[in-house]
Structures are given as structure tokens and as C-alpha cells.
Amino acid sequence: MAMASSVKVVLGSIAFAVFWVLAVFPAVPFLPIGRTAGSLLGAMLMVIFRVLTPDQAYAAIDLPILGLLFGTMVVSIYLERADMFKYLGRLLLWKTQGAKDLLCRICLISAISSALFTNDTSCVVLTEFVLKVAKQHNLPPHPFLLALASSANIGSAATPIGNPQNLVIAVQSKIPFGKFVIGILPAMLVGIFVNALILLCMFWRLLSVLKDEEDPAGEVVVEEDISSHRFSPATLSHSASLNSQELNSRLDTADVKSSPNFSGNIDNVETLRNRLPSSENEINNVHSGALDSARNSIASKEGTLDVSSQKREETILSERAVSNNRLRDACPTESSEGKENLTTRWKRLLWKSGVYLVTIGMLIALLMGLNMSWCAITAALALVVLDFTDAWPSLEKVSYSLLIFFCGMFITVEGFNKTGIPSALWDFMEPHAHIDHATGIAVLALTILVLSNLASNVPTVLLLGARVAASAAAISAAEEKKAWLLLAWVSTVAGNLSLLGSAANLIVCEQARQAPNLAYTLSFWSHLKFGVPSTLLVTAIGLTLIR
Within 10 A of 359 (CB to CB), how many other CB atoms are there? Predict the structure, then answer.
């Protein structure tokens, strides 16, 4: 492609520079408007400077990529609601054998979840959980956070839905889902192993130090975090039985309290009787009228005592009847509540099973080679219908700012391509970057690696993708496919080089820094010490395994 006019070259370069600065440094002091607004600003400048016409700007937006990105985000949201990531968290803790075993598990689970649910989603969900696990075992979080971020990037390279740049490559290259996975999966598996090995070598002494006893409070927090909410209808019946027991005990106490009073009154009567003169002489001397009056008073007292005791017994019986009626009235309520809880639990289980089946169906459809964008959108809408409630609480979690960022980026990169600068640079590099020999592959990989860290991986793919594929297609169709897969592998693994290399790294860093009661700062230099050797070794080994 020939160079555009000098005016378009200068203005287009200015617009792209604005986009690049705000994409790489979203909080730059002189214009802290963020990546999304910076992307739109770059797109607007391309149109204002007349590098692109409005129609060309709209045509530059790749709707299939946006549809695929939206669909995978919605599916990931419903999988998170269905406790998929909680089950992954339980898998992390299942029969763990110490710090080194935990580190390897984090690498493996982070890679698998990123390949299926995108690396950004996995990092958002798992970062705080990893911090809690580290606190529970009284371990330093630094190596585990590095394992999470780096493995998420490596694992996401294995599938077209693992990260945004793979989405772009899958749509533009039209490589079927299954062939894409088969082409990169061996490199991904070996890369995860090498990455874990590097982490173990760098932090072996730190992970081997004997730690203090586990924090019991931390263990409770982690258990609550990974456990689903449970319905417990038995609690209601248990509380009701306690109430009935208390009531019966109170009634028994009333009986005990009433019986001594009654016996005490009888004893008084007996005492009165005992106080009567027993000797016959005394009886003869006592006046008959006084004796009769004494007998009459005793008889009246006995009658009074009989009436009062009878009233007490009737009161106790009536109280027992009332309590029994209350218990009978309470039992249907408790049983109905228990049935409602059981019904809700079964509905929840069926809904979760439906979410997993829809997701598996989407993956099968992708493996069959069906249109990836519409497969993801169909699965997303199927989950919305399956939920059978207002979808807004779930849809509002979609990262619309990311979708808008992509729209602006498509326009900005297209405008920069119109200037002719990327074509001129590729014409200079192409003779040294043929992928049919090792030197060309090394030069191409190094170019992608540097550009991915300077301009970010998605713009790099948009700038180089078509040119690299066209150069490889001149050799053979197989080399064209290999070129796309090499681009996917190197641009993704390049994100591990520095903290600013990928969004997943920044997500882990920010999530760890803002975690309540667990805050940890992952510095740029500490990441770079690990990122440079890991990126170079994993990239080099993976290049030999991609076919």
C-alpha cells in the first residue's frame, strides 16, 4: 500500500498517538480520561482530520467480533452466578499438599478457566479468592498472584474465546474452533508446565519456609467464600421443638408449684385435727357447742381447699390445651416453609444444570465449526430465557466500556492503516520474517512481542494480522494457518512480559490492591523480574510446538 499524503500521514499519526498514549497510560496527568474515552477520541480525530470518511469509520467496526465478545461475556456472567468459579475454588483446596502444590493448582485452574471463560473473567473472580487462600495458609501472596495472572494469559491462548485478540484472529482467519484449539493446545500445556517450573525455581525457598499455624478465622472466611448458600428447613422444626419443650417444662413447673401448696393446706388441716384433744376426759370437759363449731370450720376449710385445687387443675388443663393448639397451628407453617425451601433448592439445582448444559452446547457448536459469533449470542440469549427473570441485573455486568473501546480501536487502527505507515514498516520487515525457516519465525515473534508491549496486543493483531497472513499464504495455505496461530500465541504470551502487558495483569494488580482486609500491592519491577524470563522461555518453547 502506498503512503498517503503527508498531511494525512501527520494527522493520522497524531490521532493514533493520542489513542496509544491513553490506551497504555489511561490516567496520564494531562488527559486522565481513561482507555474507553481515549479510544473514542482517537476514532473521532481520524474522522475530523479526514483520514477516514464517516462511512469508512462505521465500516471499520467489526460486528462479528463484538457479537462474539458480548456473547462470551454474558455466558461467563451466568456461569459465575451458577457457582462455576466456586467449584473451581473448592478444587484448589481439595486435599492440597502444601504451598508448592497450591501454586501448581492455581496455574492449572487459572489456565483452564481462562481458556473457557476468558482470562479477564477468571482474574476478576479468582484474585480475591487466591488472596484468602494465601492468608488461610499464612503464605506470601506474591507468587500466587503471579501464577494466576501469567497462567491466565498462557491458558487463554488455547481457544478463540480465551481473550480479545484471539477473537479477532478467529474471525479474520476463519480457522475453525477445533483446529484452532488443536494447533495451540500442546504449546499451552507445555507453557503452563514451564511457567509453573519457573515460579517454583524463583520462589522455592520462600515456599519452603515453615509457616505458623493456619489462621482459623481465615479458614472460615475461605470456606464461606467457596460454599454455596444452603437452605436448612430442619432449623425451623428444631426451633419449634425447643419452644414446645420450654412450654411443657413451664407447665410441669406449674404443677410442681401447685402440688406443694395443696399438700401444705392438707397438712394444715391434719395439724388442726391433731391439735384436737385426744383424751376422753378432755373431750367430756369441752363444751359440745365449741366442738361442733370447730368441726364445722374444719369442714368448711376442706371444702374451700377442694374447690381451689379443682380450679388450679382446670387452669393447668386449659393452658395445656391452648399450648397444644398453638403447636398444631405452628406445625403446618413449618412444614410448608420446609417444602418451599426444598422446592427452591431443587429449582436452583435445575437452573444451574441448565446453565452448564447450554454452555456445553455452545462449546460443541463451536467445535462443529458453526459461526462463532452467533453461537455465543444464541447461548447468551438461551441463558437469559432460562433464567426466566428480568435480565438487567445480569446484563448490567457486561463490560460495555470494553465493547465501546473496541469500536473506537477498530476505527483508529483502520485510520492508521490508511496512512500507509504500517505497510511501509512491514515491507521493511517481511524479507526477514518468513515463517518457513527458524530465523524468520524468531524475527516475527520478536516483532510481535515488542509491538504487543508497546501498542498492546489487540492493536498489534489488527495492524499485523492481515499482512503476516498474506505473506505466509504466498508460501502455502498451511503456512498461513500457522502464521495466524503464531500471532495468537506470541501476542498473548507477550502480555506476561510486564505488568502493563495485558489487561489480566492489571486486573490482578488492582483487585489485589483493593481487596478488603487482604490488600497486597504487586509492583511493576517485581512482576518484570519474573515476566521477562517466563515470557521468553514460554514463547520460544511454544513456537516449536505450534502446527
Answer: 21
